[in-house]
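Deliverable D4.2, example record:
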Amino acid sequence: MTEENKQPVEQPEEVEVELETKDAEQAVEQTEEVEVELETKDAEQAETSEEVQELSEIEELQAKLDEQENSYLRLRADFDNYRRRVQRDTEAASKFRAQSLVTELLPVLDNFERALESKPQSEDAKTLLTGVEMVYRTLKQALSNEGVEEIVPTGEAFDPNFHQAVMKEPSEEFESGIVIQTLQKGYQLKDRVIRPAMVKVSE
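Output generated by the structure prediction step:
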């Protein structure tokens, strides 16, 4: 074998050093990989923690928003109810503003009707009665303009919402529960009864 073909023979010590160097490099690489992996996990955990925190804050804000919205809806409903109640009371006050006056005038109407039922004999009395009748008609027209209506239920079925039974008697002409005589007229203002009719009912 010539000197040119001779290969240098590595010494055992050099091999050991080289192996140790490789082991050290591998250890460093593994350590770096572990550190990178740990840093990645830490970053992922931190990101997850931030996401959880953000989600929790969003849920808390959403809960507060829902609470405020519910409060607003309740307040709106209360206000709508109040507005409707005020409107209803205002309409009722306007609709029945004349009730107290009409109630006080009913005895006056009764007296007019009693006077008109009389049979005057003298001409002066007849003239006076004519004047009374004119006043009576004018008063009735004014009350009618305010929505006042008479309740004269003779021949109708007895209705406790409109009639007050003060007498009962057998009747061959009417079946039981029929008003056979109106003893005193009743009156209603629009759809509200201000005085029920006093009646006699068949039994």
